[in-house]
Description:
The complex is a heterodimer. By secondary structure, chain A is mainly α. Chain A folds into 2 domains: about 35-95, Electron transport complex subunit B, putative Fe-S cluster (3-methyladenine DNA Glycosylase II, Chain A, domain 3), CATH 1.10.15; about 100-165, Alpha-Beta Plaits, CATH 3.30.70. Helices cover about 40% and strands about 10% of the residues of chain A. In chain A, a hairpin with a 7-residue loop joins strand 2 (about 125) and strand 3 (about 135). In chain A, helix 2 (about 35-40) crosses helix 3 (about 55-65) and helix 2 (about 35-40) runs antiparallel to helix 4. In chain A, about 30% of the residues are buried. Among the domains of chain B are: about 20-30 and about 115-300, NADH-ubiquinone oxidoreductase 51kDa subunit (Rossmann fold, 3-Layer(aba) Sandwich), CATH 3.40.50; about 365-455, no CATH class. Chain B has helices spanning about 120-130, 145-150, 170-180, 180-195, 210-220, 240-245, 265-280, 310-315, 370-375, 385-390, 395-400, 410-415, 420-480; strands at about 25-30, 35-40, 50, 55, 60-65, 75, 80-90, 95-105, 160-165, 200-205, 225-230, 260-265, 285-290, 300-305, 325-330, 335, 350-355. In chain B, a hairpin with a 7-residue loop joins strand 7 and strand 8. Chain B starts with about 25 loop residues before the first strand and ends in an 18-residue tail after the last helix.
Amino acid sequence: MDIVAILSLPLLATAMGFALSIAARFFAVAQDPIVDSINELLPNGQCGQCGLPGCGQAAIAMSEGKLGPDCCPPGGQALAQKLSKLLNVPLSNDAETKSLPQVVEIDPERCDGCTRCFKKCPFDAIVGANKQLHGVLSDICTGCGMCVSVCPQDAFAYKTDPIFSNGWAWPKPELH
Amino acid sequence: MLFSKRLIKGGVHPNGQKKLSNNNAIVKLAPPKRLFLSLKQHSGAPAKAVIQVGDKVTAGQMIATGQGGSANIHAPYSGTIESIAEHVAAIPGGGKQTMVQLLCDSEPNNNYIKLHHHYQSRAELIDIIADAGIVGMGGAIFPAATKLRSTLNKEIDTLLINGCECEPYLTCDDLVMQEQCVQVVGGVRYLLEACAAKKAIIGVEDNKPLALQALIDATSEDDNIEVQTLPTHYPMGSAKQFIQALCKVEVPKGKRSTDVGVFVQNVATCAAIYNALRFGNAMTQRVVTLSGGALEQPMNIEAPIGTLISELVATCGGLKLSAARIVVGGPMMGHTITNMHSPIMKGTSGILFLNEDELPQTTSSPCVSCGRCVAACPMGLLPNAMAELIANDDLEAAQKQGLNSCLLCGSCAFICPASLPLTQYFSYATTEIGRQKKMQQKAQLARRLNQQRTRRLEQEAIKKAAEKAAKKAARAAGGTRPQRSPRVPKTAKQES
């Protein structure tokens, strides 16, 4: 009787293992593994600036070649370069993709503390309270513009990211 | 000489132009009326002002304290603090820095506040150097005490004192070695104690015979201090090359000189250390070279930190020609400024007023792949290949080629027959890589915050649903409406 008890569990485990491996093969959802790699890089703000509702869809579209590697404004040039390397797609050289990363700032004269913007901010980059002046944490803000679209006071303005506008740096040499 | 083994890799031989300014003794500047003391005289975070506008300060009084590895700043003369405001600085790009504006007393008060300068241990000795606000005067402007503290848990075999001054035009270290050799050697003795090194070697290029002789005389009684002559060869004075020339060891990539048992310090810094430890004087003065073909009388001036460049020019008798370019530092690694109303800082070794003939050709032509830059690079890099990668925005590949090892010494751009701005490419790429790294960190932070937010919203939704369900259940069971809880103002934002 003991032998039945000892063998029953290993046998059961082996049988289930086989069943699982067969199921994994037959019921697998085919997805390009590159989608995951792209998703890993994207900021996941779901801001919709690429024209698609979310970052997941954008990753699929990029893997299918429907979107370029420079489609994500919050990610900026750094992300575009990484994606272009990952997807093996060259970056276009027009000025628009080379524009510096942007962040938003709130005009204190206009903000009336309606809290619409910080509820919308996908990155918690806006702080404030009811009827209080709101502020943007430029260390976090990706310039996705979700807040700009909901502000009834039109209090938002874009400016260059302080990482790029603070201090002076050697410009890239231009050859004559 | 022709067949002697070269001490360092690569390098160039620019025209020294030392004779312009090394014939005259150091001139001591009369106390200026106003001084502008920048709060960022050193590498690292800016110092924090400890005085208020309107305060009376005495000479030697500390006006700003170093924080997070930065250096203290002291008032060179007694006077009144006029303002603490932004003022144009002699930094690349001509930007502004926060400066303490000091209106000096018309009759200088001779009550000089001395530092407490008695010590009983190495750590205490280093503390005095920190109190004196001494920074490396060789170019890196790194606080000397921070550098010395890193030797406390490392074994230092040799102390190297850098008297190369390989940049053309500059002669301030040369004159300091000639006139203040006692202070320099005294500082070397203190440094030997501070870093517990067995011996010290003072390395001086052979174009400074007077300085060499003065040092040999001053060290005649020291068995553990040696003076060595080095060939005149740019960039001999760069720390890595200097160590290679004197100790025959190469500092591995990504390591510091202290990792190979060597500690390097500049000669003028030694003199400042001596003044601090022997007399309790804070670092409030320095010798600056004023030179260049456009200057009436090139000379070396000992001036208080914060003196306006325009006042130094006046001491030199003004300009005899129109200055086509004003350079702070040496011509190889310095940077141009446009405003003479900026003050000198602790790290300002020279100010050059170059005339039209002294400028390099600026129109560049395509690279002909002659390879001279490769031969000239003291770090064994491929400047032409790296510049091409950077021009094509492939910064990552440039880094793989060794961009991080670049000293920005300018040898490649100096030797380039096509006058390509090679060093400028590397300066650009270095800052650009730093910015992109910051952007990457920012993106990661944004991603993390977004995940936290999503989780929080989910939890809030679950909580809300549970509350609703509980209310419904209570209503169904009791039949009466539950009493409304007192209204609590909604918190605007939950801590994530």
